[in-house]
Design brief:
The complex is a heterodimer of chains A (111) and B (117). Chain A has 111 residues and is mostly beta strands. Helices cover 0% and strands 56% of the residues of chain A. Chain A has no helices and eleven strands. In chain A, 36% of the residues are buried. The model of chain A has no long low-confidence stretch (mean pLDDT 91). Chain B is mostly beta strands and 117 residues long. Chain B is globular. Classes of the chains: A mainly beta (111), B mainly beta (117). The interface between A and B is medium-sized, with 24 and 28 residues.
Chain lengths: 111, 117
């Protein structure tokens, strides 16, 4: 059974600081997705990582994928308050369409 | 263009009643997914539709849950004899194809917040 674990589950950080969120998964997959969810809102796609070594960056967020380690990271650089949200990673098993989501990391950036 | 829409946005019902939740996917998207998100939790896959193929119902938690998709577009998720543990946000998503490699991004609707009293 595919399991996806994120850590930390909660993260409170000061503006201007850097931090990394980790997403570990338990079985082979070459595709990993990061989503953002604001309170009371739906999920917004951030990154799609399709191969080993993939790295994507958007603003202060950078995501990477290591399929051999079954690990993805979401790195936050010089955090700002607007990044406060819950971040989910999701994995689909090769050849299928089912996303298995991590439990989410609730990020709060303090001004 | 318009995104995925869901209705109602909120639903309060009494235990034992039936509810219907509606999802309108993005035009042209052939794949449609339903998920459930309980308070403070991640997303739980419920069911998947691809075009006119038989749906994958493997994620439905009990036989009280059913879903249909008419004309390859609009989908309805029905929960019969609702229980308090059914209270959650029900999210619908669609993607362009969803078949084969399944790597296409899923676009999510705003969700229906269901509260069973």
């Amino acid at each position: 059974e595919l399991k996806v674990e994120q850590n930390p589950l909660f993260l409170s950080m000061q503006e201007g600081k850097n931090y990394t969120i980790y997403c570990n998964y338990s079985t082979t997959s070459d595709r990993l997705y990061w989503y953002r969810q604001d309170p009371g809102k739906s999920l917004e796609s951030l990154f799609v990582l399709l191969s080993n070594g993939a790295v994507k960056q958007e603003g202060r967020l950078m995501a990477s994928l290591d399929t051999k380690a079954r690990l993805s990271t979401l790195h936050i650089t010089a955090a700002v308050h607007d990044l406060s949200a819950t971040y989910f990673c999701a994995v689909d098993t090769s050849g299928t369409y089912k996303y298995i989501f991590g439990t989410g990391t609730r990020l709060k950036v303090l001004a | 263009g318009a995104g995925v829409s869901q209705s109602p946005s909120n639903k309060v019902t009494e235990k034992g009643k039936d509810v219907e939740l509606r999802c309108d996917p993005i035009s042209g998207h052939t794949a449609l997914y339903w998920y459930r998100q309980s308070l403070g939790q991640g997303l739980e896959f419920l069911i998947y539709f691809q075009g006119n193929s038989a749906p994958d119902k493997s994620g439905l938690p009990s036989d009280r849950f059913s879903a249909e998709r008419t004309g390859g577009s609009v989908s309805t998720l029905t929960i019969q004899r609702t229980q308090q543990e059914d209270s959650a946000v029900y999210l619908c998503a669609s993607s362009f194809s969803g078949g084969g490699g399944g790597w296409e991004t899923q676009y999510f609707g705003p969700g229906t917040r269901l509260l069973v009293l």
